[in-house]
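hey so i finally got around to running the thing on that chain from the lab meeting. sorry it took forever, my laptop kept dying and i had to restart like 3 times. anyway pasting the input first so we r on the same page abt which one it is
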Amino acid sequence: MPRVSTGVAGVVVLLALLVPAGCGSSSASHTSLTDHPSLSKRASSAPSRGGRHVLLRHLLNPQAYAAGGELYVAQQVTPAGDRVLSELMRVDPISGRVDAVRRLGSAFDQALLDDGVLWVSTTRAQTSWLWRLDPASLDVRSREVLPGSVPDDGTVGALAVAGGWLWGGNADRLDRVSLASGEVTAALPIPRAGGIDVAADPSGRVLLVSEGQELARLQRRDPHTGALIASSPIFEGVTKPYLGGIIDGGAWISEATGMMGYAERVHVDDLATARYPSISWAAKGGVSPLVNATNGIRAVVRDGILWVTQVAGGPQRNYCGNPVSGQPRAALGLPAQSWLLAVAPTSFYYVNGGATGTLGELVRAPIPPACGAAALAHDGTGFSQGSRANAG
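ok and heres what got predicted. didnt touch it at all, straight out
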């Protein structure tokens, strides 16, 4: 998921400058609504379109994360083409009202809500930061510098909770962080990783790592110590597989090969590809949408449901499905230049427009009944990293 300032699936851009704060003290600047007059223009009073509501306007490549009944939206605040510097907003998930803003002075990577703390990772050049924020006010409780030592492919700042620890993927190391203090208690080197993706199952008993670039591997690691337990055969592509979530002993991954992309499920125990009957979904010749796709496809499990999304993918590439078999259940009805950003128990959020460097809008839509009853409702993680893949 390379970091880009423009492109079909990158980080958010809003044409407003900010004062860099990512490398300063833990008292990074906090902006109130009165300090940021453009916020009043983002909340939309647009009428419902089939139960869909425009929440925010004038966004370019937004990222979103829904958890704990809250919606967090990150956006780039430097001009398109410049170094990515982001801000984070807490947004009312129903009205789109912006209730809090945190300027980051670096590029937003990922957010994770756990036990009353909003963890946020950001990166600028070869340095990353781990923020502990108040989930309501976005006030900073602590911030830890996570220095990198080698270039990466943009896959940095991935976060997961397993074994009673917060695990973070850096450029060439796996960091174990205290959930109580935010301090790094162990740093495990993974040479030539070129960026590390991490994922955990809802119970926190399984920790998976994706590392490497054109030649990459999946790893299962001890959730308490980070020690290597198992490693997969090599995956060949333009970058490492993206980890999309773990459920029922299997993990969903998405891979960009350069010419096209695919998604598949792997067994957690031996990291081998799961086999299931061919999946077809409104496709000529019964071609599986999880195989015949572009580099931007993402398959992510949230709330016990499989969500597949792809920029400009239409109904065939934007749907909910069975989290074990991958069988599609319902199309999401996204417009042509749209892609999924985040999922809550009853709604999903997508960006409409903005795929070619233009400003887009954040839209809320009801989850189709055919998607199935929500399970694991405490896990509301968004598509913050999945939305930053190259597409084409």
